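Note to self: the last two entries modelled the partners one at a time, which told us nothing about the interface. This time every component goes in together.
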Amino acid sequence: MKEISELRLPEDLFYSDDHEWVQKTGDTVKIGISDYAQDQMGDIVFVEMPEVGDTFVKGDEFGTLESVKAVSEAFIPISGEVIAINEALEDAPELVNEDPYASWIIEVKPSVEVEFDGLLSRDKYLELLQG
Amino acid sequence: MQIEQLGTTPYHRAYDYQMKLLKRLHEDDKKDDVCLLLEHPAVFTLGRNASPENIHVPKAFLHKKGIHVIQIERGGEVTYHGPGQIVCYPIINLRRNKLRIVDYVHTLEQIMLEVVLHFGIKAKRDCRNPGIWVGDSKLGSIGIAVRHGISYHGLALNVNPDLKPFDWVSPCGLDGVTMTSMEQELQQALTLKKVESVMIEQINRLFRRTIN
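The predicted structure of the combined assembly is written out below.
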């Protein structure tokens, strides 16, 4: 397991306490899992994603990541409609391990003014990891 | 960590109880991790990626035998559970215990390896297929899921189950995999109770290193 100091945690992202990251890109946000989360899971062999057009409420399960013989459920940190999924992960789920920040999982159009309130800055997220 | 021995428990009841414990651990960080030990009445479970063609017998046949087929959310394919198999469901806050999923699965395998070794069986891992193996036969299976950093589902060790139902499916989606049991390997009778008490010792020993 990586030491906390070895984790890559970009400054320009928001993080959830379930270890997803959120990046604002214009009117939409991209969502993926953090370096901590991918390291925790080990080699990811399958990423199950929602359909474009699905809508979710903050806290809903939006997909799963499967590693070894474990299924990890991913929970959406903001409410909204899925406008794109990262299809590259269907054929190459290992991309999430290789670069968890380039490998976004879904792109969402938030249904309300983006609820960044409940999300964590890089420093707050680091505090959470340090426990 | 608390260990609860539930005895024979229907699949759905055990599942609901796991969900209850998971919710409790998620809502209250200070709650203890719990390890459930039990036996299921005969049941086939289909993982998220299971294809129905991995069950090779008609539904009516299973119905006649009183075996249910249940769709669940863990990884993997088709699994059989039944009397004579020790099932262990650890509900552990992996995050709090700083346990990686790969290391957690490794520990579950280690528990089974130590238990069967205690009775004189040398089993091994196969890095491509979680579980424990004697030659090309599978003696113990693993299938886990993680929600909010907390594990559920777990392991199943064949002590002395009827091995026939395994032939009615492609276990774990692998064709040509045969299942074995501790009794078959040892060619002598074993009680579940005896194996379960050794498993409790190993759970306490192996998880004590990693779990507070």
